[in-house]
Specification:
The complex is a heterodimer of chains A (110) and B (114). Chain A is 0% helix and 44% strand. With 110 residues, chain A is mainly β. In chain B, strand 9 and strand 10 form a beta hairpin. Classes of the chains: A mainly beta (110), B mainly beta (114).
């Protein structure tokens, strides 16, 4: 069964500090992993996908199949990064429905 | 195109009443998804359409829930005989048939059953 876990409900860091939001998954095939972000009073939006290996707003995430992890990292947190972050998994084949983790609230303190 | 639109934004209803929500996806997107999100949880998949065909339904979608996308454009989600446990944010998302851009979500409809 597909499952995504995010062990931290809340993560607080100071501005300028590194941040790592953890995500682990279980899936029998080759999944596609995504990070979605929801800023206060805004809709859920795609942050990045593992398949594109891109850096968005300074965030990166590497898929580690051995550890079944897809942690989100940023070397220097900014106050505007404060938001809810959801890790999501999609099965093989684009368009398969997503399984979301419970989310981690990131709070970047001044 | 202003993205995915959902209507209404908020709905308060009495237990036992029927409610219907509407979603207008991005016009060129073939796929449309419904998710439900309760407090402290990530979105949970309910159902999805490819054009007008409903291709998958979650076990979360009880007999009281029905979704349609009659012309492959907008979609409606109806909940009959609402229960307090139906209180949640109902999210709609759309995506193109091919491509790796992920979903585009709407703002959601918040349902409160009293």
């Amino acid at each position: 069964a597909q499952r995504v876990t995010q062990p931290e409900k809340l993560l607080s860091v100071f501005k300028g500090a590194p941040v790592e939001l953890k995500c682990n998954y279980s899936y029998s095939g080759s999944p596609e992993l995504f990070w979605y972000v929801q800023y206060s009073r805004q809709r859920l939006q795609l942050l990045l996908r593992h398949i594109s290996r891109e850096s968005i707003k300074g965030f990166t995430a590497d898929l580690n199949k051995g550890e079944t992890s897809f942690h989100l990292k940023k070397p220097f947190a900014q106050e505007e990064d404060s938001a809810m972050y959801y890790c999501a998994l999609s099965g093989q084949g684009y368009g398969q429905n997503f399984v979301f983790g419970p989310g981690t609230r990131l709070s970047v303190l001044p | 195109d202003t993205g995915v639109s959902q209507d209404p934004r908020h709905k308060i209803t009495k237990r036992g009443q029927n409610v219907t929500f509407r979603c207008d996806p991005i016009s060129e997107h073939n796929r449309l998804y419904w998710y439900r999100q309760t407090l402290g949880q990530g979105p949970e998949f309910l159902t999805y359409f490819q054009n007008e065909a409903q291709l998958e339904k979650s076990r979360l979608l009880s007999d009281r829930f029905s979704a349609e996308r009659p012309k492959g454009s907008f979609s409606t989600l109806e909940i009959q005989r609402t229960e307090q446990g139906d209180s949640a944010m109902y999210l709609c998302a759309s995506s193109p048939l091919m491509g790796g851009s992920g979903y585009t979500f709407g703002s959601g409809t918040r349902l409160t059953v009293v």
